[in-house]
Please model this.
Amino acid sequence: MNRALYRINCGSSVAFTDAAGNVWQEDHLVPAPKATAEQARRMAGLRLETDIKLPHGSGLGTSSIAALALLALSVWLARMGKNNKFVLYPMIFMLAVTLTALVFMFFKTLAAANIIQAIVVVALFILALILVYMAITKLRAVGKQKTAAS
Model:
């Protein structure tokens, strides 16, 4: 279970409380010896309670979507005859981040003996390389058309 701490400010003093009402000190978040849960509740401030029910992912979702969107945008801009350098360089960075995360996830799933997830990771890696190949061939074709038109 995740232990979320909630910060409570009261003038210059700071206290933290968890969902069970335990009070924690700011120094290394060790249990506070003097403050009680009732004292923390009486302190001025806003108490916010959250509970996370979603499983935590690897972060691959957002980076892969960003890389794919930038890849499509850079090819589209090149086909329209526009300068795509401002999209191309961030796309290369996001793609490198995504592929690196896939490699790390592959080794992590192998170490955990999760063969099915390792196969999915390899499939995603291969699909990413196919998309990169298709984008490179399209960008080269656009470059050749520009050169032939000049």
Notes: The two ends are 64 Å apart (CA to CA). Residues 8 and 45 are 6 Å apart (CA to CA).
